[in-house]
Amino acid sequence: MSATGAATARPPCTEDEVVLQRAGLLEAGVVAALQQVCFPEEPWDEASVATLIGPPGGFAILALRGGEPVGFVMTRVAAEDGEILAIGVLPAGRRSGVGRRLVGAALDGSRSLGATALFLEVAEDNEAARTLYKTCRFFSVGRRPGYYKRTDGRVAALVLRHSFAPG
Ligand SMILES: CC(C)(COP(=O)(O)OP(=O)(O)OC[C@H]1O[C@@H](n2cnc3c(N)ncnc32)[C@H](O)[C@@H]1OP(=O)(O)O)[C@@H](O)C(=O)NCCC(=O)NCCS
């Protein structure tokens, strides 16, 4: 509000500004396109994305830079447990804080749906994601040996948990 009480118009987005927005079923194709770039070895189609975010407890968030989609996170909450199903940022948009904001949005959204903790799985060799989750206070609670396929073998998945409980 201005000094006179009149609402001040928000300036238009700058080219570099990142905005997060909830993705509905109409945006399932956009989420799938981002997922395919970020996970070319395990691409999901639009129908798979819709199946995951359509039911109650499922939601997706898009990150838009200058109006263009650059990242996404898909999350599901069942009873008290939330789970990040997938998160990715386009290669050109990485390392500018988008991933951290998407994790924050997944945490906020899960908590508002009643989750007391948020879980995820990350490949043991995924240094970027593991560092991101560490900075977001996720801690390891399990390990699944040989969970992910690699061209030169298999790699373990770490199960990480972020608790909403204080302390
Ligand atoms: C993991 C991923 C989502 C991170 O997205 P991002 O937008 O680059 O992350 P941010 O810029 O918010 O980084 C936040 C913090 O994470 C850590 N981090 C991110 N990328 C990193 C890298 N390549 N190496 C080391 N640390 C990294 C840093 O601590 C960083 O903070 P800093 O830049 O202030 O040092 C992105 O690399 C990605 O899409 N990877 C491919 C898909 C994937 O692996 N998804 C996760 C599956 S579990």
Helix and strand arrangement:
Blueprint: E1 18-23, H1 28-38, H2 46-53, E2 58-65, E3 68-78, E4 81-89, H3 98-112, E5 117-123, H4 127-135, E6 139-150, E7 153-163
Parallel strand pairs: 4-5
Antiparallel strand pairs: 1-2, 2-3, 3-4, 5-7, 6-7
Helix pairs in contact: 1-2
The chain binds coenzyme A (COA).
Strand order of the largest sheet: 1-2-3-4-5-7-6
Bound molecules: coenzyme A
The biggest beta sheet reads: 7 strands, mixed
CATH architecture: 3-Layer(aba) Sandwich
Count of helix runs = 4
Spatial extent as radius of gyration: 17 Å
The beta-strand count equals 7
According to CATH, the fold-level topology is Aminopeptidase
Broad structural category? alpha+beta
- Give helix % range: 25-40%
Q: Which assembly state applies to the chains in this document?
A: single chain
* Count of structural domains: 1
| Order of helix and strand elements from N to C terminus | EHHEEEHEHEE
Q: Can you give me a brief rundown of this structure?
A:
The chain has helices at residues 28-38, 46-53, 98-112, 127-135, and strands at 18-23, 58-65, 68-78, 81-89, 117-123, 139-150, 153-163. With 167 residues, it is α+β, with helices and mostly antiparallel strands.
Model description:
This protein is an alpha+beta fold and 167 residues long. It has helices at 28-38, 46-53, 98-112, 127-135, and strands at 18-23, 58-65, 68-78, 81-89, 117-123, 139-150, 153-163. It has one domain: Gcn5-related N-acetyltransferase (GNAT) (Aminopeptidase), CATH 3.40.630. 26% of the residues lie in helices and 38% in strands. The longest helix is centred in the middle third of the chain and has 15 residues, at 98-112. Residues 1-8 have low confidence and may be disordered. Coenzyme A is lined by residues 38, 87-89, 94-100, 122, 126-129, 131-132, 135. Residues 38, 87-89, 94-100, 122, 126-129, 131-132, 135 line the site of coenzyme A.
